[in-house]
Amino acid sequence: MISTDAFKITLKDLRLLSRDRRALVILVAMPMVIIAIVGSSTGRLRANREQSRQGLTIEVADFDQSETARRLAGFLASYDSVKVRRAEITNRSDTTVLKKFQVERPTDEIDMRLVIQPSFETRIRELSTTLLTSPDESTRKDGLATVKLTLISNETATDPMMEGLGKSLVKLSLQNAILPILAEKVPSFRGAARDSAVPVAWEQSAAAKALPTDSGKRVYQFFIPSYTVLFVFFLVNIMGRSFLGERDMGTLRRLRIAPIAPVAILMGKTLPFFVLSLAQTIILMISGRLLFGMSWGPQPLLLIPIMLCTSAAATALGLMFSTLAKTESQVSSFGNLILLSSAGISGCLVPRAWMPPMSQKISLFTPHAWALDAYSELLTKELPNVSTIGQSCGMLLLFSILFFVVGLYRFRADG
Fold first, then answer.
1. What is the pLDDT of residues 281-326, one digit of tens each?
2. In CA terms, which of 25, 186, 196, 215 is 20 to 30 Å from 316?
3. Contact, 217 vs 295, CB < 8 A?
4. DSSP letter at 81?
5. Strand 56-62 with 82-86, pairing
6. Three-class secondary structure of residue 413 per DSSP
7. Which residues on adjacent β-strands are paired with residue 83?
8. Is the Cβ–Cβ distance between 147 and 139 less than 8 Å?
9. How is residue 78 annotated by DSSP?
10. C-beta separation of 86 from 203 below 8 A
11. How far apart are CA 165 and CA 56, in angstroms?
12. Quick check: 120 and 149 in contact, CB under 8 A?
């Protein structure tokens, strides 16, 4: 009986919601517009932070094509924290091309560019034995330019620590690269030159051949789930206004005096928004994949329980709030306060990893945080932990039950 009554109320409310088509379009279009704007404007910031954790990416533009130049790039690529990429040079004999590489700063995921100028090896051979055995002395006056090298940082604000690390690594690599030349002048270095392990030619390494990763797509792996969760919970305000409208028209009072259980009434009032929430999430996920190249993770089917549990928590919260709010002003003021504060502390606006430890702990008192944990585990990990996703979904269901019970209690108390 309860299921039948709830189903009839659900159908009635779905028909009412379907009449306001503009609101439905905005409910889906607004998140996509905000995702596109925020993703394009702050994507570089997040991509830089991710890139800094992976190591230093250096682009090598080799205009000398000598054995010493190849050894320099090879030793530079041998460091675990360094990724070396080969710059595409159209004409090595064209001085304007060389000047362009020396002046223009690298962009995107390239942190630094090392330009090996023509006659680099010749210049090394011209240096005295004293300077060859003391790299700091040879580069003290004019820096790396003394040995026909140019190191340029990314176009964004230069990080002094990163720039210093890059210079140190280049100097260390240079010291190993010039060992054969040094051994020709100083016989005592012949053993060191013979025993030095020459790395695989950097042109053949995986890092040199790898295509630049699309950092923008990685950014949307965060923004789309975050703003999906944010706007799913915006149904709280819509549900609150729906309940107030029913009260003002007297429809809710007629349902109360009808032979319908309170549980059936609340289920019937909640299920339409649950369906709307699921539809919104599915459309955003599909649009994210088609428009922004977002990945659904290695196990896309796990998206289903995450979306179901997130929508259940959002609509249950909306139900509880609807039974607590009494006026339109309360729906607007308290609803927006709850939504924005919970979105901010949970990590919908900025990653929780960037927050202080105390804020990260507090965020776990919001269903948003558990939904984001589930999405993050699935969408950003190569091998997602199913138990972590299950734990997050379980917590979302607990929130749903708690919110529904409180809403049911308040609904009965008001009757």
1. 898 888 888 877 788 888 899 999 999 999 999 999 988 888 887 7
2. 25
3. yes
4. T
5. parallel
6. helix
7. 57
8. yes
9. T
10. yes
11. 9
12. yes
Of all residues in the chain, what percent are helix, strand and coil, respectively (each to 5)?
A: 75, 5, 20
By the 8 A CB rule, do 207 and 83 touch?
A: yes
Residues 6+ apart with CB under 8 A from 23: none
C-alpha triplet 31, 36, 42: angle, nearest 5°:
115
Q: Are 182 and 189 in contact (CB under 8 A)?
A: yes
Tokens representing residue 157 in the block: 């604000």
175/135 Cα distance (integer angstroms): 7
Q: List, in order of start, the domains of the chain with CATH numbers.
A: 2-47+215-414 (no CATH), 55-209 (3.40.1710)
Q: The tokens of 26 are what?
A: 């905005």
Q: How far apart are CA 29 and CA 16, in angstroms?
A: 20
pTM: 0.58
Hey, what are 74's tokens?
């090879």
The residue count of the chain comes to: 415
Within a 13 Å sphere around the CA of 204, how many CA atoms are in the beta-carbon half? 5
Tokens of 85: 């990429």
Which residue bears the tokens 């460091």?
79
Q: Which residues fall within 8 angstroms of residue 143, CB to CB, at 6 or more apart? A: none
Give the bridge partners for 58, in sequence order. Answer: 84, 112
Q: How far is CA 332 from CA 34, 55, 213, 328, in A?
A: 21, 46, 43, 6
SS3 93: coil
**Is the alpha carbon torsion for 361, 364, 368, 370 positive or negative?**
positive
pLDDT in tens, 349-397: 777 777 788 888 888 899 999 999 999 889 887 788 899 999 999 999 9
